[in-house]
C-alpha cells in the first residue's frame, strides 16, 4: 500500500522557459492546425502578444522538472504498474512564448479500490508566470496496480 501520510506533500517548485520552437513542436505533435500556434504574425493578427501555448501544453511543463515524475520515487512506485487515470485543466490566463513559468504541485488525495488492488493518487499542479499571474491549474489522477 502507498504511504497515505504523503497526502498534502508539496513537491519542490521549478521554473521553465517557454520557447517558441517548443510551442510550435507541441502544436504539431497534437495535430493543432490553427496558425496562431505556429505563426507569430497570425498570432499577433489574432490579438496575441506572442505565440500562445496550445491547450494541454501545461502538462509538458511537468516533465521538465529536476526529477522525472518525483512522485514515483517518493512513493517507491514501480513505473510498470502506473496508469494515467485522468487529466483536467483549468485555464486562468494565457501562456506565451518567452514566458517563465513556475510549476508547483502537491498530492491532494490517495485512496484505493477493489480491496487495495488499485490505488489512486490525485495530484494538482499550478502554473504561475514571471509576473506572478496564476495562468493555469491541472489535476491528474494516477492509478497504481498492486
Can you walk me through this structure?
The structure is a single chain. The chain is of the alpha+beta class. The protein has one domain (4-17, 53-145): Roll (Thiol Ester Dehydrase, Chain A), CATH 3.10.129.10. The protein is 18% helix and 35% strand. The protein contains 4 helices and 5 strands, in the order βααααββββ. A 5-stranded antiparallel β-sheet has the order 1-3-4-5-2. The model has no long low-confidence stretch (mean pLDDT 96).
Q: How is the CATH topology named?
A: Thiol Ester Dehydrase, Chain A
Give helix % range. 10-25%
> Quick one: CATH class?
Alpha Beta
CATH architecture descriptor name:
Roll
Write out key terms for the chains shown.
146 residues; alpha+beta; Thiol Ester Dehydrase, Chain A; elongated; 5 strands; five-stranded antiparallel beta sheet; 4 helices
What is the element layout, followed by pairings?
Layout: E1 14-17, H1 20-29, H2 40-45, H3 57-62, H4 70-74, E2 82-91, E3 100-113, E4 118-128, E5 134-145
Give me a quick take on this structure.
With 146 residues, this protein is α+β, with helices and mostly antiparallel strands. Helices cover 18% and strands 35% of the residues.
